[in-house]
Amino acid sequence: MKRILVANRGEIAVRIFRTLREMGMQSVALTADQDTASVHARYADQVISLGPGALADTFLNQKKIIDLALAHGVEMIHPGYGFLSENADFSAAVEAAGMIFIGPEAASIRAMGLKREAKLLVAEAGVPTVPGYSGSDQSPATLQAAANEIGYPLLIKASAGGGGKGMKKVLKAAEFLEQLESAQREAQAAFGNDVVILEKYLTEPRHVEIQIFGDGKGQVVALGERECSIQRRHQKIVEEAPSPMVDKDLRERMCESAIAAAQAVNYRNAGTVEFICDASGTYYFMEMNTRLQVEHPVTEMVMGLDLVRLQIETALGQPLNLERIRQPRGWAMEVRLYAEDPDHGFLPQTGKICLYEEPNGLGIRMDSGVDLGSQISLYFDPMLAKLIAYGPTREACRARLIQALEHTFLHGLKTNVGFLHRVLSHPAFAAGHTTTGFIEEHFANPHAPDQYVIPALAAGYLADERVDLTKSPAQGPWEQLTNWRLGA
Asked: Are residues 221 and 83 located together in one domain of the fold?
């Protein structure tokens, strides 16, 4: 029996704890003072408090986490995703302390952690990269000259970052320097590194990624692709496997490139090689995420694998069992449920969940980090849960996921549930015409309230036994109903 600490929280911690329970291993959770009532704490065998403070003092405090782990007899640490999951220093510190880090070695994380260096590295391995500039000369004059040579439109991207931070689209030469300054400022603030790269902007781009697994001894396997083109503010919200645009030949070539990229850094454990594809089907390396991805469940469902179990087995030195690797079967889709307001720039929302009900049924999976009564604050990421559906075909899977969204009840604060329903129901999505500009193209303007909202409010109003419609307005429902507040 191993004692494993998950240096994370929310739905990914719950997800990992479930696998640990199946494997007969002991699970240890971390909480901050503002997080003690969270759902993930209830799933673990033991809970360790990180105390008060901001993220820098809690979930990002490497020394505190390692010291607490050692004090409580922890043998292995799983970083989840986000927080310290792609921090090479943390990986090295865990190993130096005599524990096992469930992830890649520090050298691999460092090699793939900077976009500029990673791009040069994989290019040497024969992996196609987006035409652009990855030079060390970061002077505005040099970058402007390189941009003019690449041509417009182009992207300025923070070398050390991800998630859209420090990324700017430049349409013409006259606005380049202004956008460059803005990108460098964001990159410095977010990552402490203002180095940028330039890349040609591709028309009708699609985001397709390959899930890989390495044993750290040179053997790497590819577990098929995921399409993650539906994004808002460069953050994925809908993912599916396989991709509707990838045929057998393209899949084989992309998997070969992903394996070559991973072998270039002698990769160990789970990783994802991300590609950008243009309208012609030509693909280019974007980056490698040296961790488990948020969207890993869609790969699990079509491949019939538990990727967390595979991570733990690999970390324990067990060889990759190639007999378990099969060709993908059926189709899987995932949507990310966020506490945000899609009609007002996807602004994060806070509040208490006062009604919560998960969908169920054949082919439905819910990875959730919240429950009835959960308090959603500004301290952590606004993602609440992930809803995943599986079906024999893409259309069957899409229909099943739409139905599941219609039976997902999460109230007390605004969420993107209705918006996700509109995305999946859109004819362009149904036809598989998904690009990274999908939301800007089809949902550029604010929408009316969800089609279910007005009937639901009316039904609730009429069903409330306290409401007497025969009373005068002065004694009407606004005086009788409780827990109502302006702007809620």
From this structure: no
State the residue for tokens 């193209």.
441
Q: What is the pLDDT of residue 218?
A: 86
* Count of other CB atoms within 10 angstroms of residue 391: 19
Q: What is the CA radius of gyration of the chain?
A: 23
pTM attached to this predicted model:
0.85
pLDDT tens digit sequence for 21-30: 999 999 999 9
Domain presence at residue 126 = no
Cβ atoms 218, 288 nearer than 8 A: no
- End residue of a domain, out of 200, 225, 255: 200
Helices (H), 264-330: 296-303, 307-315
Structure tokens at 428: 């362009």
291 an active-site residue? yes
Are 386 and 270 found together in one domain? yes
Say which of 3, 251, 291, 398 is annotated catalytic.
291
Cα 366 from chain centroid (whole Å) = 15
Range of the domain at 182: 131-200
Q: Is 177 found in the same domain as 91?
A: no
Closest to 292 in 3D by CA, of 186, 219, 392, 386 = 386
Q: Report phi then psi at 102, rounded to 5.
A: -85, 85
Q: CA-to-CA distance for 280 and 77, rounded, in angstroms? A: 43
Residue 191, CB-side half-sphere exposure with 13 Å CA sphere: 25
What is the distance between the alpha carbons of residues 255 and 219, in angstroms, rounded to a whole number?
Answer: 14
Report the number of distinct structural domains present in the chain: 4
pLDDT-based confidence at residue 107 (cuts at 50, 70, 90): very high
Read off the pLDDT of residues 453-471 as tens digits, 9 standing for 90 and up. 666 666 666 666 555 555 5
DSSP state of 129: B
Same domain assignment for residues 407 and 464: no
**341 within some domain:** yes
Residue 157: burial class (beta carbons within 10 Å; 0-12, 13-18, 19+): buried
Quick one: 297 and 422 in the same domain?
yes
> Is residue 232 assigned to a domain?
yes
293 inside domain: yes
d(CA 178, CA 357): 47
In 3D, which of 416, 411, 367, 417 has the Cα closest to residue 388?
A: 367
Instruction: Say if residue 55 is in the same domain as residue 16.
Output: yes
Query: Treating both helix axes as pointing N-terminal to C-terminal, what angle do 394-406 and 417-425 enclose, rounded to 10 degrees?
Result: 150
Determine the pLDDT at residue 35.
85
The DSSP secondary-structure symbol of 317 reads: T
